[in-house]
Amino acid sequence: MNFSIYDFTSFTQWIDKFLYDNLPAFWAIAVEMTLIGLVILVFYALVGLFLVYAERKVCAFMQNRVGPNRVGPFGFFQTIADFVKLMMKELVYIKNADKLLFNIAPFIIIIASFMAIAAIPFAKGLHAIDFDIGVLYVIAVSSLGVVGILLAGWSSNNKYSLIGAMRSGAQIVSYELSVGLSLVTIIILAGTMQFSAIVEGQANGWFIFKGHIPAFIAFIIFLISSTAETNRGPFDLAEAESELTAGFHTEYSGIKFAFFFLAEYMNMFIVASIAATVFLGGWMPFHVSGWAGFNHIMDFIPPFVWYIGKTFFIIWIMMWFKWTFPRLRIDQLLTLEWKYLLPINLVNILIMAFIVLMGWHF
Amino acid sequence: MTPNQLMFAIFSAVIIIFSILTVTSRRILRAAIFLLFVLVATGGLYFLLRFNYLAAIQLTLYAGGIVVMIIFSILLTSHIAEKLEAPGLKKIIPAFFAAAGGALITIATILQHKFPTEVISGSERTDIRLIAKSLISTEKFGYALPFEVISILLLAAMVGAIILAKKRKD
Known about the structure:
The complex is a heterodimer.
Chain A: H1 9-22, H2 25-62, H3 78-88, H4 99-117, H5 134-142, H6 145-155, H7 159-190, H8 195-200, H9 207-210, H10 212-229, H11 241-244, H12 254-278, H13 292-300, H14 303-324, H15 330-358
Helix pairs in contact in A: 1-2, 2-3, 2-12, 2-14, 3-12, 4-5, 4-6, 4-12, 6-7, 7-10, 7-15, 10-12, 10-15, 12-14
Chain B: H1 3-24, H2 28-48, H3 52-77, H4 89-112, H5 128-136, H6 144-165
């Protein structure tokens, strides 16, 4: 076995071979599935904890404050302390709620984001399932999350929750279109929906540069609409704390509230990694054709670092949105989607198809 | 038992149990959620058969689209404490016979059908170019006509929805 941080293929194949040599086929698959599930679960929890910390620090930076700075160096362990606190909180049961739906709503949201994260390529050879329809799969699975939000709002039997859920439903259903169509623009350019093939196609230039202006427009639209799809500010009118207390998760407490919180941050991570993979080359290093020396230096940085770097860059942009723009009203939100983003998107797809047809991309 | 058979058993159990719960639940939103589980498990069956494209479409259209629409309309029209009345015996007995008759016909057809034993190996990858071409092709196995008919239907539905939602000036 030769382990290398540049290519995980031999490492994962070694684990696969080891399991099949020592176990019957059925148990080897079972153990593999459990292992991958555990790895993704741990990754999920760690990224969630880190993102909450990052959000508070970025927010503090934008507002000229210090942010959390008591627990650990630079307040780094603040979210762990918060997590312990949330674990110890009482789970409040509501008398007149639909208990079954109230209890499964957070799980539907968590499972939807958990299913999406499995299809994302983290590094070369570090990719749980490489579907031939990867992009479509992620869009399909992430559209399930809205069911959890609607259920949470309705089953709480609270008018604020219900209004929050309805707003969030209208918002997600409409912005899903823009997310899908902006990805279609790149699918036309890439000619495939498979994530690994999309990443390979960007070896000689990221799609955002390859596709000229239409790709850039698609990137901007994807950023805007995916921010809306994850219910983050300035599109956070589903939980608008000044008018709806906390929207659909008003009635949740303790660890169930933490589920919603975690899912929100993980959805942000997922859309950021899709943006990084589809537009910015995923784990592909930054290459300029002709500059051999520069390309070699870029190759020296491991793919996983590239992936994480790009993803966190996009997450940082999304946090920047949240802390600088005021919240939209519901009519402004729907106008933005249906009267501006969607028509621009459709024209953009036509232009991109024309460019690909004429072979003007490189 | 191979892992595929195990997964098939799990998916079919989920489909059967939640289908029954969907029609017997007396809370309408719960019925919608059980229907969601049935549709997601059907999507799982397609994944098992490696019909990835169909599975993803099943998830987007049925689970993400239609069930969300159903939930939306329930959210707008019904109250949380509402429970449907239990149907009387007069309704249960004919319904039972209709359902049993349908099940009998289906099972008899499936048992009589000779399934081919050799494995038909499709290509591992769904080529999206092929899907796109067959969507707009007018030849055999082309979907140009259904595609256009569906778009006209959708357009008519949208125009109807706008007219219904518009305020009248009378």
